[in-house]
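REVIEWER CHECKLIST
Item 1: Sequence provided? yes
Item 2: Single chain? yes
Item 3: Sequence as submitted:
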Amino acid sequence: MSRRAGRDCVISGSGLYTPPESIDNAELVASHVESVRRFNAENADRIAAGEIEARVESSEPFIVKASGVERRYVMDKAGVLDPARMRPRLPRRSEEEQSIQCEISVAAAEAALAQAGRRGSDVDAVIVACSNLQRPYPAIAVEVQAAIGASGWGYDLNVACSSATFGIQAAVDAVRMGNASCAIVVSPEITSGHNNLLLRDSHFIFGDACTAVVVETADACVAERSFEVSSTRLETSFSNNIRNDFGFLNPSEEPPREPFELLFRQHGRRVFKEVCPLVVSHIEKHLKDGGLAPGDVSRLWLHQANVAMNQIIGRKLLGRDPTPEESPIILDEYANTSSAGSVIAFHRHRADLEPGSVGVLCSFGAGYSIGSAILRARP
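Item 4: Structure as written out by the authors:
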């Protein structure tokens, strides 16, 4: 656990980029059903021979029951809804243009900096923390650093859906120990590009968004509202139940991988059963080590993957069902935005907390990985 070994740190600003296009469940189901019917018709002989399985059609009630998702924002609606394509259509950019992840990172970063009362030139550490990066190098973070006019250093970090909280701990540690004075953690999640939109069990899960948080010392903070970072904690435990095998060695592998292996895939029931108790135990231990009990927590900003998971986690922690204010849900509108989800919940549901109130920002996902930060609202 990251403790107070140096300077006190705060989150002084948060920012959110939301793509302009959204897709509701009805639209998504219509495209999915058409794509399934085409696939099954084109492969009728192979399906009858038992060589491949027929694909199963989705429905709006199934999506809501399975996840609580009602809509999602995407970078390209037409490509996602095209039954012959079922993935976003993103024009390739030249090396002289900003990458798409840099572009949305800058939008979120500028919003977070404005809230913190800072400019890009005040930043001397940039961490881009997200589940999928569009290239290995140069780091997206270094591109963002240049784009906002920051100094110092930057690097990319990937711990799947826990990336943002892992990035927050890295930023807090850097600022506390004097290796940075003002750090920004950005999570540009274009999950529509890594999801298998052809399969019933996963086509509805994800949405696109980008978040940013500014971390700096408490004594330098000029923001009207900020949150003291009391402590952070990270935890990992290896599991193959959530996996994506896309990587630079794919062209060298023999035999070649099936295309679905290069996209998100999971054993959803196993994840649900195994991750919920891990998260509850993680948060309980984190609070206890900080001299706190679950009853001291006014707000749970949890990873936004599945509404039932969040309800169970809240119930186990509090001993009762959490109120919508105690454990806010944004996945009905945004779907699962991977590492950005818990930060979106924080960004949109923090202004009403009274000074001194305690909140827990927690994300969890592939790895398994869990990251949490205990935050206290400042006057």
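Item 5: Key structural point noted by reviewer: The first strand starts at residue 9 and ends at 17.
Item 6: Recommendation: ____
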